[in-house]
Amino acid sequence: MHFEKPFTVKGFPPHNLESTSTLSMSQRPPTTWIRVSLDLPLADGFDYRVAQTVEIGQRVIVPFGRRQLIGVVVDLPASPAVPEAQVREVIAVLDDLPPLPDDWLALTRFAADYYQRPWGEVMLPALPGPLRRVAAYLGKRAAGGPVRRVERRLERRAAKAVANAPETVAAPELNPAQAAAVEAVTSAKGFGTYLLHGVTGSGKTEVYLHAIAAVLAEGRQALLLVPEINLTPQLQQVLVSRLEAVVGAGAVAVLHSGLAEGERLEAWLQIWQGQARVLLGTRLAVMTPMPSLGLVIVDEEHDTSYKQQEGLRYSARDLAIWRAHQHDIPVVLGSATPSLESWHHAQAGRYTHLSLPERALGTMLPSVRLIDTRRLTLQHGLAPELLQAMRDRLAADQQVLVFLNRRGYAPVLHCTACAWVSQCHACSAWRVMHREFGRARLRCHHCGAHGPVPRACPECGNQDLQPMGRGTQRLEETLAEQFPGARVVRIDADSTRRKGSAAALFAQVHAGEVDILVGTQMVAKGHDFRRLGLVGVLNADAMLFSHDFRAPERLFAQLMQVAGRAGRHQPDSQVMIQTGYPDQAVYQALQRHDYVGFAAHGLEERRSAGLPPFTYHALLTAEASNLAAAIAFLEAARNEAEAPASGEPAPPPGLTLFDPVPLRVVRVNRVERAQLLLESEHRPLLQQFLKQWLPRLSALPSAKSVRWQLEVDPLEI
Ligand code: ADP
Ligand code: ZN
Ligand code: ZN
Predict the structure, then answer these.
(1) What is the pLDDT of residues 426-452, one digit of tens each?
(2) How many domains does the chain have?
(3) Among 153-162, 229-238, 513-522, 653-662, the least confident range
(4) Looking at residue 15, what is its pLDDT?
């Protein structure tokens, strides 16, 4: 994200945030009226009466209809917006925490404005669960409230704890490229965005650690965001111990969605109260109040898990940059394959480009070979050349990784006598065949519905139903047959469903107890498999021909990641990609490890097609019981924009509204979905338009039969 005028913090706050100023609570006269933001899709604030001194940022319990809700005080108006007689009394003013700080209010307010949501729907979900639940305060077992409970737990632990010195890990000496990157970041004065482009294994983590150590030495805090998959227990442990070796035990707090509510509150409090100095977290961590933030790092900045896909559809990377700007501090975006948006900003000089061109351990990047499958007879989906290479590597006592980003046994079951396929009844998608405890089942990956495989074709009674295509389960089975002496393990969402099973499987691989690893994208990130000499890639073409214009970019990033698992320790490692389209730019660039060439080519295509980062998108999605209703609403919404009722502003020139179209998977769980894309070369123009257009949509007659939502900067269209 690059800031243009309307989005700088200078224009902020539009709200009355300054009024929480210099007077202390005791000097202040009691407040009479407060405006409270609630987690409701309605308006921005509701007014209440109160008879004590209240500050902006404090949480209060208020009546709403027949319910009681926790909200945040956002204004102290001189008089209420509705007649005084209608204003209700606050139930309780919560003072277990100081008021939420101004910069946090500003951050959530910005996110609400930018992503076109009521402020309360951003602010409250950003708080740990217990802080926004009335029962945690007024219930029978509230016992002083959740904050007090966490504090008691921490005290008990502190009394018991014998300082557990972190293992000292010998830190390697920085190489010149790393040292230059650290120097650039630590000598930065004020806000600046640094794009750290380093090939896989180039030692980006070491750069982060040094930069973090430097801000901690100044008594400040650091925020390190990582993709979701990098905080799976086994990877988290590695990262935390490396961080603790640099910054000290107890200085690191971890936040991710897998934590229990109490744990999340604990980490959140430790960061806000300053006991913890480094916050390591997934996208949700970006909304944590950090009183002395000095540095922000977004590792794997291109990763799609930074984008929240429901509720407030924010980009944690973009908010991280905004926060750095707000605090006037540097932000580092690291990646082996930066998003084209970030790369474009670096090319234009808005981001400072830092480069780690070589692997830190001195090993070479693996060689990449494209296996053209067009003129080949595949054996169970595998090219003879790949099979031979696997045999050779196994004979040399190396490990092999076979990457197939499709779980299950086979993507579809079909009848050999008629046209029947295992279609999901609730979705416009096939049910995937899975093998579970020796029995075959059909599962829909969209709605989750599942059932046994029919004994005979439901259409014609034929008993010969056959799986078509292959997923990781079938691949595992094939490889076990082809390599009878080898130890084959599969790692995907199915094989790791039980708690702890992923850790156990990865431990086996790391301990060298596995010869062939079959996996989905779960194995692509972060892992360092010592004996890995060969990576085979199957069925990558499926991603190439997706409708989404970002598909090649994502495929490139993913394959670079998987390829990056190879050769960290093996000198002559290799990647083999089976493809029917070896001439595609993605594969050609991969073969040369040429991110820069790929990005140049990709940006040129985007420029000529008028796509991001050269334009800005917003996506209006409608869901209804039938597609016609969804399309009708989107048509009406477009009409409302293009031919507004008298008195409403006309759409600005420079804004394009495309035709409403069904989603690629149009029906999910009996709900049909369509979308309307808006595009403009000017972000402020798009923003201003959305602001005045969206409120008018709820009033459209066709809005009654749909659920709609808007996404700003969508990643998938
Ligand atoms: P990246 O995150 O860029 O893929 P890592 O940070 O995981 O790379 O580093 C790859 C490997 O190189 C790690 O084993 C790390 O300990 C090692 N390493 C990093 N910097 C150096 C260095 N300056 N000298 C020697 N080894 C290093
Ligand atoms: Zn049939
Ligand atoms: Zn389904």
Answers:
(1) 999 999 999 988 899 999 999 999 999
(2) 4
(3) 153-162
(4) 30
- In a shared domain, residues 182 and 328: yes
Going by CA atoms, what residue is nearest to atom 19 of ligand 1?
Answer: 203
CA distance 464 to 4: 62
172 lines ligand 1 (CB under 6 A): yes
Task: Tell me which residues have their CB within 5 A of the ion that is ligand 2.
Answer: 415, 417-418, 420, 457, 459-460, 462
What is the CATH number for 191?
3.40.50.300
Kindly state the DSSP code that residue 411 receives in the 8-state scheme. Answer: S
Determine if ligand 1 sits within 6 Å of the CB of residue 711: no
- Choosing from 212, 361, 510, 593 the residue with most ligand 1 atoms within 8 A of its CB, the one to mutate for a pocket test is 361
Residue 352 belongs to a domain? yes
Higher pLDDT, 355 or 171: 355
Q: CA–CA separation, 456 vs 46, rounded Å? A: 61
Asked whether residue 338 is assigned to any structural domain, the reply reads: yes
Q: Whose CA is nearest to atom 10 of ligand 1?
A: 201
Best mutation site among 178, 200, 205 for ligand 1 pocket (most ligand atoms within 8 Å of CB):
205
Q: Which atom of ligand 1 is nearest to the CA of 200?
A: 4
Q: Of 139, 104, 141, which is closest to residue 124 (Cα–Cα)?
A: 104
Tell me the β-bridge partners of 369. Answer: 576
Give the per-residue pLDDT at 243: 92
For residues 289 and 399, membership in a common domain is answered with: no
Quote the pTM value. 0.92
Q: Pick the atom of ligand 1 nearest to 204's CA.
A: 3
The domain boundary residue, chosen from 556, 578, 605: 605
Ligand nearest to the CA of 181: 1
Is residue 16's pLDDT more than 50? no
Q: Are residues 30 and 92 in the same domain?
A: yes
- Atom nearest to 202 CA in ligand 1: 3
Is the domain of 241 the same as that of 350? yes
623 C-alpha to center of ligand 3: Å?
16
Residues 293 and 197 in one domain: yes
Domain end point (choices 356, 387, 421):
356
Is 465 domain-assigned? no
What was the pLDDT predicted at 526? 72
CA of 336 to the centre of ligand 1 (A): 13
Range of the domain at 35: 18-117
**β partners of residue 367:** 574
